[in-house]
Amino acid sequence: MQTIPDPTATAQDVLRGQRIELPSWAFGNSGTRFKVFAQQGVPRDPYEKIADAAQVHRYTGVAPTVALHIPWDKVDDYEHLAGHARELGVALGTINSNTFQDNDYMLGSVCHPDARVRQKAVDHLLECVDVMDATGSRDLKLWFADGTNYPGQDDVRARQDRLAESLSTVYERLGPDQRIVLEYKLFEPSFYTMDVPDWGTSLIHCLALGPKAKVVVDTGHHAPGTNIEFIVASLLRLDKLGGFDFNSRFYADDDLMVGSADPFQLFRILHECVKGGALDGESGVAFMLDQCHNIEPKIPGQIRSVMNVQEATAKALLVDRAALSAAQGAGDVLGANAILMDAYDTDVRPLLADLRRGMGLDPDPIAAYARSGYAERIAEERVGGNQAGWGA
Ligand code: LRH
Ligand code: MN
Fold first, then answer.
1. How far is the CA of 220 from the centre of ligand 1 (A)?
2. I want to staple 387 with a disulfide (CB 3.0 to 4.6 A). Which of 42, 105, 228, 317 is the partner?
């Protein structure tokens, strides 16, 4: 339940309790249609991906869960994988379905004109719920590549009916503490219509399904210039924000490190999150990273990304909200804007360094990881086998 923020919680309290979920696929090789550059020491299986994710938690203290992607992270024994994660001080998080890499899905999956293909896709989604039962995960994150490339290719409305029917079958299967979080995306890989192109379409389906269905905001999935914090405020107002796939972009779905392209936008998003109670432990809002480190080292890339979210959050927590609402109420446009900018222009790195010292961590996670020799060790050890990737 999204609530009013706890006025007594200090910024340090909230930051210490922050939880940022890491994507297993960020530790594998990734790239573009032009090239996927292999990097030394890349994991060969989900066990090694989780070991790398545990390094990020070890040096940041706020990334204790790892999202899995099925079948990229398919294993014979998910309880055993969950045990491996526990031994490393982390846990398995959101389960991501994948109905975008099978030849049968060329014209769609849950929206495909052919009922046999839709059933195949629904069976995969139900299999993902079985995985959640085994891993103890709360969320099934659904993103569909489904859409069309040419006007007339298929009936836009009929595809929405197929989507609704497929989603309700999966919704019925959910356990009492399990949720569907439905991600939208404006374009790619479909270029005329995507069947879940925007927050409105995702919200419509989530409202139709029920309270265990919420919207995921991937910060790279909007038209350029979209006011994402407006979407966040609106979803929080309806208690329909399930979570974020954080990353950043200059142009399209670039999946770059969150906050690297537009740190001010990330601050504005976190400002709405603070105001809307999304950072309260029981808000039910998942803060996940969804990124690809195509050319930069992956573990430091994830550590830097977690730090970027912490910096934006710390700045948002420093907003003098009482003064802001007073200025807003008085119609003091410049005054109100200045109050927000004061927080944004505050250097919060000393505050975060203190926070880490207070958590028994090195104030500089990147330097601490570099000194650990872990990168050199995995580059040496991980020879042979198949490096993990998107398996496309
Ligand atoms: C689609 C997406 C989705 C994932 C994939 C890895 O662009 O954002 O969240 O399944 O990336
Ligand atoms: Mn995403």
1. 10
2. 42
Q: What DSSP line would sit under 103-135, residue for residue?
A: GGGTT-STT-SSHHHHHHHHHHHHHHHHHHHHH
**What's the Cα-to-Cα distance from 386 to each of 46, 72, 81, 220, 391, rounded to whole Å?**
12, 12, 19, 29, 11
Tell me the per-residue pLDDT of 88-129, one tens digit each, with 9 for 90 and over.
Answer: 999 999 999 999 999 999 999 999 999 999 999 999 999 999
CA distance 367 to 388: 26
CA distance 275 to 268: 11
Residue 134's φ and ψ, nearest 5 degrees, are -75, -35
User: Which residues have CB under 8 Å from 135's CB, separation 6+?
Assistant: 68, 78, 79, 81, 82, 92, 95
Pocket of ligand 1 (CB under 6 A): 25, 96, 143, 183, 185, 218, 245, 253, 290
Tell me the C-alpha to C-alpha distance, in Å, between residue 189 and each of 247, 346, 383. 18, 40, 33
Q: Which parts of the chain have pLDDT scores under 50? A: 1-3
